[in-house]
Amino acid sequence: LIGITVDKALDFPGWYQQILTKGEMLDYYDVSGCYILRPASYAIWEKIQEYFDAKIKKIGVKNAYFPMFVSSRVLEKEKDHIEGFAPEVAWVTKAGSSDLEEPIAIRPTSETVMYPYYSKWIKSHRDLPLKLNQWNSVVRWEFKHPQPFLRTREFLWQEGHTVFLTKEEAESEVLQILDFYAGVYEELLAVPVVKGKKTEKEKFAGGEFTTTVEGYIPQTGRGIQGATSHHLGQNFSKMFNITVENPLGTEHPKVFAHQNSWGLSTRVIGVMTMIHSDNKGLVIPPRVSQYQAVVIPLGITSKTSEEQRKAIHESAKKVEARLLESGIRIFGDYNDNYTPGWKFSQYELKGVPIRIEMGPKDIEQNHVTVVRRNDSKKYTVPLDELEKRIPEILDELHDSLYSKAKESFDEHRVQVSEWKEFVPALNKKNVIVAPWCGVMECEEDIKESSGKQDDGEEIEVDDKSPSMGAKSLCIPFEQPELKPGQKCIKCDREAVNFTMFGRSY
Ligand SMILES: O=C1CCCN[C@@H]1CCCn1cnc2cc(F)c(F)cc2c1=O
Ligand SMILES: [Mg+2]
């Protein structure tokens, strides 16, 4: 495995592909838009699952598994909002050489699979709240250029589907789940996100409102949707007849339930990689990395005596054993056929958060030398402080990754109130927080006027395409002060809020 031969700043798509393949995170597959998740990335997904699963279980969500196949009769039940998605639905039409009577869809999401059973299982208000989640994969046959992790035809995700007696309970859960999503990004992946609400145009059409965590990719200056938590209201309970008898009296004997649905996918791995990795290869945040540390013995050359070599290996193995014992995901590389320098670049390529060097000098002075992957910062750690200092160094590494990404996002999130400044700001790799009227036509106008007509076939891979217009990313929960009489950034109407706009994935 040789190093990365493409510069992140010069050829971002080429760089992204190389660090994923050379970092052994992913491999390309012969069905377009599909990829193989190798152990290094699958281990990251497992860490995300562990964290998120524990949080949702604490609020009473249970995991379940529903079939991946949806009959066309059932899928078409959600006709109104499905039609927009119809082109993406993948169908099974044959088994062996014989055609199926009725084509069967592969789930692109599981509302139509689950909700008929919600209707069957939920009779009394005592059956509420019902909160189920699936860890599964879904298929969406997108035609836009695929991008590893960011846009794939099959992806792993979790989809939560919850049912409540009252709107209030549902609405508070939407925000609780959004906080968990922000935690996945900020606490686990060291990625800063902006929380907010989608506009009417960008929300999930089948729901009442959509809340979202939005990320930012500095290299392309684009926003990226990180995860969504929707309040569905009673739209789906009316469609699928999910009702309970009214516990509050008889004037309305039947109450349609209030629902939420929420999802986070393996896209998070792409976001994390694009933000933290560099020209030496992957940089993996320590809390999700398959291995957090690698021990590398130093000072062994062809001239080293056998007992000296043994002594160095022994002390390195002791350090490895102690840290393994204390819960650090660590391994040692004792293969003397490779030089330390070769090993350093190998583990930089794979993004191992810290390397622990152990040579004759270190042994003499009873310490190890620790080097951080993200910025090569060096630490000297006395042997008797290992178990205390290594976790601290890993946390410091996480924090330094986060603050660097946060600084970049904050610097490129600019407030603009005059239209003439909008496109210039966009072309400086910014996302824009602007006073806005909230009118959909105006949102369309902003998109058109801030780039050439986006023909939907936008080759997002090349970040040089100024032709892409700015979409609304979210209405941030954190709202700057609206001046009385403040006008919309684009039209003459009064502004009703500040909305974040940007080119996006
Ligand atoms: O986004 C989520 C979170 C997890 C549960 N589902 C919601 C809404 C998904 C919105 N959506 C998104 N994409 C879709 C693609 C399709 F081909 C299709 F038939 C339906 C959909 C579709 O409903
Ligand atoms: Mg889509």
Polypeptide structure, described:
Helix 2 packs antiparallel against helix 6. The protein has helices at 12-22, 39-58, 72-75, 79-82, 111-121, 167-188, 235-240, 267-276, 306-325, 340-349, 360-364, 386-411, 419-426, 440-449, and strands at 26-28, 35-37, 62-63, 69-71, 91-95, 98-106, 130-139, 154-164, 194-197, 209-217, 222-233, 243-245, 254-256, 258-265, 293-297, 330-332, 354-358, 367-372, 378-382, 413-415, 431-436, 471-476, 497-502. Helix content is 33%, strand content 26%. It has 505 residues and is an alpha+beta fold. It contains 14 helices and 23 strands. The chain binds ligand 86U and magnesium ion.
Summarize the biggest pleated sheet.
11 strands, mixed
Q: What integer value in Å does the Rg equal? A: 26 Å
**Which compounds are bound in this model?**
the ligand O=C1CCCN[C@@H]1CCCn1cnc2cc(F)c(F)cc2c1=O, magnesium ion
Lateral strand order in the biggest sheet = 3-7-8-14-11-10-9-22-23-21-20
**General form:** globular
The percent range for strand residues is 25-35%
Write down how many β-strands occur, each being a DSSP E stretch of 2 or more residues.
Answer: 23
